[in-house]
Give the backbone structure.
Amino acid sequence: MIKNMLKTCSLVSLALSFFMLISASAFAKDTVRIGVEGAYPPFSKTTKDGSLEGFDIDIAKALCKEMDVECKLVKQDWDGIIPALLAKKYDAIIASMSITDDRKKKVAFTNRYYQSPARFIHKKGEKAEISKEGLKGKSVAVQRGTVSDKFITGEFGDEVDVKRYGTQEEAYLDLNAGRVDFVFADAFVLLEYLNSDKGKDYEFIGDSYTDPKYFGEGIGIALRKQDTELKEKFNKAIKSIRENGTYDKIRKKYFDFDIFGKD
């Protein structure tokens, strides 16, 4: 009798534990790991206490909230950001990555979540002309492996001394030190620098560049090609935060002008 009672209690306990496990799983949110750079203000930067902030960071969190998933941010240097995605260190990249044909060979992209031209900056008062002849013998700083790097190399590589850096901040340091003549990068990123104390002696020069051959179709979220369901969820979330005002609220925090572009 006692033996049967113990057996029954054991079965009840096991069933209860199983039920609790299933219930916990049912209510637990999925986690999406997002690869970010943390060194590309105002889109992403690492603060003194080690936390991450910026437009890309806020967009990542807003998209996760819209998809009803937990958002885990994983900091990664730009040079290894796609290899780390393919190695499954994280599930998606939200790091101001341009949608280009070359990158499409390796990863899939969502629809864009903003677009931006690229421009040159140089020291105020210095005479210069942005042309192949005008840049001949000059040095231009770019962040290594970016679309800006590919553009300068492809269009001006025979005329200029291309200086490549691991981060945008390193490029600014050499500009401030007089070791390079120009920096070429995303116009919105450069604007952040020009509005800072370190950038007050520098200015834009020349035209804006948006050639799709180099700059692609805008800025999108990169994913592994097989993750089609996650891609669709991100696309729906991008559309939703655009429609419900969340996107514009985040945008106004960093920019007083449109950065999404025409639909």
The chain has a mean pLDDT of 91. The first strand starts at residue 31 and ends at 36. Residues 75 and 86 are 15 Å apart (CA to CA).
